[in-house]
Design goal:
Thioredoxin-like_sf, globular, Glutaredoxin, 5-stranded mixed beta sheet, 226 residues, single chain
């Protein structure tokens, strides 16, 4: 729906790209926390000047709002959302050790796992290894540890029965990995707990609600209330 004029002056603007995993997890956090924004869908080959003025790198997501709010990275947006209005019944780190463990998972996902994922998905761009080698690197470094974490006590989510920020942060990237070779993922990966965890996440109403399609935003367009 379009954003009423009264809300246009008060709600933050989120520059997003529907299929970008970083933008996905920012949208997931904002929606889970019940924080409405003005959504501006970006076509990456035609980045609007308004986005480039805020972030010359041209990457998304970017959250820009009143009183100097400017967040240029997905994890910043997620943490801002959870700090502002964390969803009831969701897991939150309860100790410095848990905060550190969550940071380690996120660092591994956005670092080594993302590099291996890119090599697996686009082996022609990353010829230092074969696609299978990149896949095995991703599995060994991130997905097997995630499998073990989920299998401990039959957990539905990374930290237990309750979902948390980490689940939202990982889903879009593991989703992308699973889509590269769906037959292998379903029949030969051996990652039963990860597959079930991902399936629960992707089939839930939260994920479905952030994957609606919107036309590319142009200056002068009415903002979309997200």
């Amino acid at each position: 729906m379009t954003c009423p004029a009264a809300a246009a002056d008060t709600l933050p603007v989120l520059y997003s790209f529907r299929r970008c995993p970083y933008a996905m997890r920012a949208r997931l956090a904002l929606r889970a926390c019940g924080l409405p924004v003005r959504l501006r869908e970006v076509v990456l080959r035609q980045k609007p000047a308004a986005l480039l003025a805020l972030n010359p790198a041209g990457t998304v997501p970017v959250l820009h709002g009143p009183q100097g709010l400017l967040l240029l990275h997905s994890l910043e947006i997620m943490r801002w959302a959870f700090a502002k209005q964390a969803p009831a019944g969701w897991w939150q780190p309860r100790s410095p050790a848990e905060v550190a463990l969550e940071a380690q998972w996120l660092h591994a996902n956005d670092g080594d796992f993302k590099r291996a994922l890119d090599g697996y998905k686009y082996p022609e761009r990353h010829p230092s290894q074969s696609a299978q080698d990149w896949r095995e690197q991703a599995v060994a470094g991130q997905l097997r540890p995630l499998e073990a974490q989920l299998q401990s006590h039959g957990q539905a989510h990374v930290w237990g029965a309750e979902p948390g920020l980490l689940d939202l942060a990982l889903w879009p990237f593991v989703r992308q990995f699973a889509q590269v070779d769906a037959a292998w993922w379903d029949r030969a990966s051996g990652l039963d707990a990860v597959r079930a965890w991902l399936r629960r996440g992707l089939s839930g109403p939260l994920f479905e609600s952030v994957m609606d399609k919107y036309p590319a935003w142009q200056p002068g367009d009415a903002d979309v209330l997200f």
